[in-house]
Amino acid sequence: MFSTIRPKTRLVGPVLVPVLLSVGLVLCVGAADRPDETELQVGFARVKITPEAPIRMAGYASRNKPSEGVLADLYAKAMAIADGRGERAVLITADVIGFNAAVADAICGRIMEKTTLQRRQILLNASHTHTGPVIGLPGATSYGLEGEAAARVHRYGLKLAGQLADLAVAALADLRPSKVSWGVGWADFVMNRREFTDRGVRLGFNPRGYVDRSVPVMRVDSPDGKLRGLMFGCACHNTTLTGKHYQLSADYAGFAQAYIEERLPGVQAMFMAGCGGSANPHPRGTVEAVEQHGRSLGAEVCRVAAEALSPVRGPLRVELKLVDLPLAPVPPREQLEEMIEGPSYIAFNARKMLAALDKNESLPTEYAAPFAVWQFGGDLTLVALPGEVVNEYVPLLESVLGHRKLWIAAYANDCFGYLPTARVLAEGGYETRCLYTATGFFAPEVEGVVLAEVRQMAEKVGRSLLD
């Protein structure tokens, strides 16, 4: 999608910015007036982000023309959270393919300019819809776009950055005392797509393969019990609609949000993508299928929300860390030339490596990826990983963090490519294409680094690893 590597030190540490009084922020609170640390305040905001004109679409390289109309509008939504100690954070979800490092940095920079938030307090999550626009900025766009096609994408990207910054401001201004709770349901359409054949692993249909069918649901009520918002997740590609579809939509995630909001007027529904890198919806390929998956998921979220849920309280602790993910050694030139003749998803990276070698450029040995962990008192840990994280990371993370009080998300803060496990790398297949915004393939050791870093971050924010 993109072609930019972010400097490791960029926009991660604390950044001092002017305080905007118009946001209604508390500047100073005496200890005697400070509310209970466990008390949470939540604010919501939303904005329509449907492109106003035909635009090139992301997700399928086979598409060769701009979008043709709108099947369902695209939205970005924000949820701001503050605890009784004054800690604040904003989660922004958006019906787009993903934010690469350069785009995420630009968006977060705009947010920090308009608020007093530090980079660690901002979490971006993309639904990874494959029927949305290409997201890019000048110098950070690919799909081979040039001329007016690229310029249109850049104009949209700049407008989107401004919209998301304003969204964060609006959510912070909406902060009010809230009762937060959560539970877990399940989705019946999630299917492992790593099909094993005589010619290796291909994108297909594997009913025996592992998938994470859990549907985490967070409910936000006002103190008097009025439902204000529902955030939910699903670990599955938003690829019900295929490359033959040219109408814009958020795929099943968008239809699920619309289903919930139609049945619960005044409620904001937000979708947070999970570790669905190795899962597709099933069945897929028709508008009827995407509508059915949306109804199915939306109904499950409503069912879970109506049950007795577990409380989610403060204090809130949020951390963000750039983690160096190890890349495999550069293969010999002869091997790279052979890789060019192989599957297109492998040849893509091999060509970039050969081009760099021809220019006597050094190739990276690691990729700096942003990991985020949010801890809500002793009630819930939200792990938000970057990239297209394969489903197989869910049981691995549970093995080091514990199975309870855990929400695992992906496609957060940077969509650099696939994040495979060591086993997936050994087996082969599409998910081993690894980076597509930079150059290189992940080394098998990446799995151990991911698990160790997440465990360390979880301990730092106060998660009990016995839960």
Task: Write out key terms for the chains shown.
alpha+beta; four-stranded mixed beta sheet; globular; nine-stranded mixed beta sheet; 467 residues
Question: What features would you describe in this structure?
Answer:
By secondary structure, the chain is α+β, with helices and mostly antiparallel strands. It has one domain. Helix content is 27%, strand content 24%. The protein has nine helices and 19 strands. Strands 1, 2, 3, 4, 5, 9, 10, 11 and 13 form a nine-stranded mixed sheet that branches.
List the helices and strands and how they pair.
Elements lengths: L39 E9 L26 E8 L5 E7 L6 H14 L7 E5 L20 H27 L2 E11 L3 E3 L1 E4 L2 E4 L10 E8 L5 E8 L16 H13 L4 E6 L5 E3 L5 H19 L4 E3 L3 E11 L6 H8 L3 H15 L7 E11 L3 E5 L3 E2 L3 H9 L4 E4 L8 E2 L2 H6 L18 H15 L7
Parallel strand pairs: 3-4, 10-11, 16-18, 17-19
Antiparallel strand pairs: 1-2, 1-5, 2-3, 5-9, 5-13, 6-12, 7-8, 9-10, 14-15, 15-16
Helix pairs in contact: 1-2, 3-4, 5-6, 7-9
Please give the largest β-sheet: 9 strands, mixed
Helix content: 25-40%
Structural class from helices and strands?
Answer: alpha+beta
- Low-pLDDT parts are 1-9, 13-32
- Give the helices and strands as they follow along the chain: EEEHEHEEEEEEHEEHEEHHEEEHEEHH
Distance between the termini: 38 Å
Outline of the structure:
The protein is 27% helix and 24% strand. With 467 residues, it is of the alpha+beta class.
